Amino acid sequence: MKRTTRQKTLPAARAARMLRKKVSQTKVAYDVATASTETIGHRTAMMGRAMTDPSVLSNPEFATMGREKLVVGGEAAMAMMRQAVGVHRVWSDYWFQQMQRSFAAVPQLAGSTTPTRLMQVATGSIGTSIADLMTFWMKATNFSQAIVDAGAKPIHRAVVGNSKRLARAA
Fold first, then answer.
1. Positive or negative, the Cα torsion across 34, 36, 41, 46?
2. Sign of the CA dihedral with 86 first, then 91, 96, and 97 last
3. pLDDT in tens, 87-142
4. Which of helix, strand or coil describes residue 4?
5. Nearest-CA neighbor of 68 among 31, 43, 41, 45?
6. Can you tell me the distance from the alpha carbon of 113 to that of 105, in angstroms, rounded to the nearest whole number?
7. Are 25 and 149 in contact, with CB atoms under 8 Å apart?
8. Sign of the C-alpha dihedral computed for residues 39, 40, 45 and 49 taken in this order
9. Binning pLDDT at 50, 70 and 90, where does residue 164 land?
10. What are the residue boundaries of the structural domains of the chain, listed by start?
11. Secondary structure percentages of the chain, helix, strand, coil, to 5
């Protein structure tokens, strides 16, 4: 059977999408790491100035540091929970599929009249179970990445925003 152009480009399009996603995840990680470092530097300098001049403690930045972490942490947790809603579906689909396959295999195993037939049924059943498990873990990995990406968005936004705001103030 001859493959059509659409069938040939589909894996290429999927690979391109996956590459863009990985590049985006890498950029978010880089932005968070560099912006966090800059923010920590600015705030450490402020704390150092406050140790020599107590009037610097009136800077509103000192009051917002802890609260903003709680707010952003809550936003990230909510985003991750919203993204994780479908995880139970993948999990339950896998287990119900395994139950169905087990119920189908039992009569075949019981009806095997020779050791050769028994081994054929058992080997097929085990092979199918392994394939199902690999599919389940691929889906679980995709869900995990989506959950992490959802949680990283509010953190990225806050960290980069803090870094820019503190750089302007300095």
1. positive
2. positive
3. 888 889 999 999 999 898 899 889 989 999 999 999 999 999 999 999 999 988 88
4. coil
5. 43
6. 14
7. yes
8. positive
9. very high
10. 10-169
11. 95, 0, 5
